[in-house]
């Protein structure tokens, strides 16, 4: 780039090709609505609420655990995703597109209210999923979440479940309810499919709310 051999807007790493690197060693797993409901019925708090945020927003584990109560806009029914936490290190979210203010369906907001009333760490500056073992200074660890998922999935007999399973399930669910591809990309907060997203623009807001409400309905309303 300094020699002006290639345009400045091109990422030089895009020219690199690693043989076989694009092939998946293992196909990602998704849960059906029935499987999720069965798993959910065996999860203990706060992990049951964690799982709802996963399946209803498609959040990464680092983003879920890094939520603070100040990120919840109770009046306007929105959730701000602004940071992530990995191995106790708090940092910005993965991409600019990941930093979003997401609409929250009434049922999911009520679920968050019940958890806020139950937890001993309910100040605005507290982590939503603050760990009592860390005196609230840190949220629950990924290991703790994984252990509870493993226990509940064994009891529910739905097969192995990881935090990424929720992300893939969310993608499958929003596709199954007929969400337009442009809205799917906005809901998934992907920044690498820019052309379609830019064409669709901000008109996706109402459709995003409708799709979110449908997903929450699948996860909660018949439980």
Describe this structure in words.
- It is built from 9 helices and 5 strands; from the N terminus they run αααβββββαααααα.
- The protein is mainly alpha-helical and 223 residues long.
- The strands form 2 sheets. It has a 3-stranded antiparallel beta sheet. The chain has a two-stranded antiparallel sheet with strand order 3-4.
- The longest helix is centred in the last third of the chain and has 16 residues.
- It is globular, with a radius of gyration of 19 Å.
- The relative contact order is 0.16.
List the helices and strands and how they pair.
Blueprint: H1 33-41, H2 47-57, H3 61-65, E1 72-73, E2 78-81, E3 83-86, E4 89-92, E5 100-103, H4 106-118, H5 142-156, H6 163-176, H7 181-188, H8 194-200, H9 205-220
Antiparallel strand pairs: 1-2, 2-5, 3-4
Helix pairs in contact: 1-5, 2-6, 2-9, 7-8, 7-9
Defining traits:
mainly alpha; 8% strand; two-stranded antiparallel sheet; three-stranded antiparallel β-sheet; 223 residues; 44% helix; 5 strands
Stretches where pLDDT is under 50 for at least 5 consecutive residues are: 193-204
Largest sheet: 3 strands, antiparallel
Portion of residues within helices: 40-55%
Q: State the order of secondary-structure elements, H for helix, E for strand.
A: HHHEEEEEHHHHHH
Mean pLDDT: 81
Secondary structure class reads: mainly alpha
Number of strands: 5
Strand content: 5-15%
As laid out across the biggest beta sheet, the strand order is 1-2-5
> What is the overall shape?
globular
Q: Any idea what the radius of gyration is?
A: 19 Å
């Amino acid at each position: 780039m300094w020699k002006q051999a290639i345009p400045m807007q091109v990422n030089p790493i895009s020219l690199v090709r690693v043989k076989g690197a694009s092939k998946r060693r293992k196909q990602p797993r998704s849960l059906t609505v029935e499987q999720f409901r069965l798993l959910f019925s065996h999860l203990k708090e706060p992990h049951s609420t964690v799982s709802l945020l996963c399946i209803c927003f498609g959040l990464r584990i680092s983003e879920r655990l890094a939520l603070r109560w100040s990120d919840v806009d109770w009046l306007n029914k929105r959730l701000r995703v602004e940071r992530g936490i990995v191995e106790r290190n708090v940092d910005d979210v993965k991409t600019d597109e990941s930093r979003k203010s997401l609409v929250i369906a009434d049922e999911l907001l009520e679920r968050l209210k019940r958890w806020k009333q139950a937890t001993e760490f309910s100040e605005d500056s507290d982590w939503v999923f603050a760990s009592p073992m860390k005196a609230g200074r840190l949220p629950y660890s990924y290991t703790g979440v994984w252990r509870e998922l493993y226990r509940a999935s064994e009891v529910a007999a739905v097969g192995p479940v990881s935090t990424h399973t929720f992300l893939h399930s969310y993608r499958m669910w929003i596709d199954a309810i007929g969400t337009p591809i442009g809205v799917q990309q906005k809901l998934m907060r992907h920044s690498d499919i820019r052309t379609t997203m830019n064409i669709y623009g901000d008109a996706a807001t109402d459709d995003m709310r409708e799709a979110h409400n449908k997903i929450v309905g699948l996860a909660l309303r018949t439980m």
